User: What shape does this take?
Amino acid sequence: MLAYGDIVSGKLDVSDFVTFNLYIIQIYMPLGMIGTFWRFIRQNWTDVELVLDILKTNEGIKDAPDAIDANITAGKIEFKNITFTYDD
Assistant: This one.
């Protein structure tokens, strides 16, 4: 709007106005890309922190002290005398 008055009065040439706008666009586009890249890095860092917090949690299920290591030889697991219950 301000440039329109300068163009009409002859203080500013149309080519100068276009050139100025192109310079602004050339500055704005890389800054926008940097902002997008920064948001991407920040979000991924937050995700990494969440994963690390999950990995730091203690296991809720522990092996019994007399548990026997599973001997898997043929890629098969057979369960015998296994029960599952929920605490009330």
About this structure: The CA atoms of residues 4 and 64 lie 82 Å apart. The longest helix spans residues 14-56.
